[in-house]
Amino acid sequence: MTGNEALDMFCYQCSQTARGTGCTLKGVCGKTPTVHRLQDNLLFAIKGIAAYMHMAREMGVSDDEVDAFMTKAYYATLTNVNFDAASFVALAEEAGMMNVRTMRLLKDTHVKNFGQPEPTPVPTGTRKGPGILVTGHNLRAMHELLKQTEGTGVNVYTHSEMLPAHGYPELKRYDHLAGNIGKAWFDQRQTFSDFTGPILVTTNCIVPPGDAYKDRVYVMDPVNVEDGKRVENYDFSEMIKHAQELPELPEAEGKVTLTTGFSAPVILSLAPRIRELVETGRIRHFFLVGGCDSPFMTGKYFREFVQKLPEDTVVLTLACGKYRINDLDLGDIEGIPRVIDLGQCNDAIDAIDVAVALAEMFGVGVNDLPLTLVVSWMEQKAAAILWSLLALGVKGIYLGPVAPAWVNDDILGVMVDRYDIRLVGDVEEDIRVMLGDVTAEEPGNEVMGSSGA
Ligand code: SF4
Ligand code: SF4
Questions:
Q1: How many whole angstroms separate alpha carbon 257 and alpha carbon 270?
Q2: What was the pLDDT predicted at 438?
Q3: For atom 7 of ligand 2, which residue has the closest CA?
Q4: Per-residue pLDDT tens over the stretch 213-262
Q5: Which of the ligands is closest to the CA of residue 32?
Q6: Neighbour tally for 441: CB within 10 Å
Q7: DSSP state at residue 130
Q8: Where are the alpha helices (DSSP H) in 224-347?
Q9: Does any ligand 2 atom lie closer than 6 A to the CB of residue 430?
Q10: Which residue puts its alpha carbon closest to atom 1 of ligand 1?
């Protein structure tokens, strides 16, 4: 039913492994496929936390409690330690809460160092002159690069995950932070081929560089590719010199102007207005549509979904998935924009803060708000965020574009029964269910795993 039946499990981490190649039906040690898959689930969430915590450490902060949890959780997946499926679900929830803690640590240090993000228009063209394109999440790298390029004539552009940089006062004050180029991470081959200057990749995602631009790719910190030029100790002098030697970028107007920088405090400053618009029926429903993006056609669901929403709805968005929709001009509802970009995936903490604050304002639980989460996932940071939402008690999340491959029918049962997770299906039917125009039990509106997606 989930399409995951081909291989029950695969583990080759100890010498007992079946046939010396891998346990695929059941562990020789006694580990069941479900426990093995839940161990993988935990490891994926830990990888996500590790990415955010590493970014926090680059900013000079850390958290002993999260570090201790990571050690405990890794240890739980070692051979002959834990054979209890329920405890791995509990550990996944604990990982979710540790990820909340980590995202907050990271956000707080970003705000402390670069100021509270504020709504900022972002051009998408290029200015005549040399330029450097920066992708990834490392705002410290962006800050250092802006300082080191100041007065050199080299403009700095953001790509993909770096778009939120434009909203931070301490970064946007640099006039040569010139705009945003390209869309989500998987457009790199085309966007980086077209961009004539050096490209700095600060964190994931990187796609193995194509011949057209691989000599212009600079990597740093955890990122590496074969023969990649490395930036060490935030010294960008070689890359800046390279930018001055390469062909200039043309003066070219972008097709759209994006807006980013809607932090939780910005939205909550509008809370009384939002309350009035909701209570008078002018805002009917909020959606959080965001998360990852991937090159698969299934991702088109999210753009179509937003395009088909009624005009009395507001969409909060964040992370790479926003590039499916952030060029749409959906207008506003009496001053409240209908598409609100909260930032990158690590800024999911702002979405959580907004939801909790709105629930408090309306005197209801988060699950009773007129709010539906429609979330796309691709890599393991998204697994950490999903468990954060589940650990916080958020129910009825729509997940797409595909079910996680490590989910078997046992795990699926828990995801549906305990968390009411649903898999995205048909756009129009999903919208009708979310808005309460039809119930999920009616044909066409399936819980996770039963839609065949
Ligand atoms: S830990 Fe268990 S499942 Fe994994 S290889 Fe060893 S015996 Fe097989
Ligand atoms: S976790 Fe998702 S949203 Fe975050 S960088 Fe990776 S692909 Fe983008």
A1: 23
A2: 75
A3: 292
A4: 999 999 999 999 998 899 999 999 999 999 999 999 999 999 999 999 99
A5: 1
A6: 9
A7: -
A8: 237-245, 264-268, 271-279, 300-307
A9: no
A10: 79
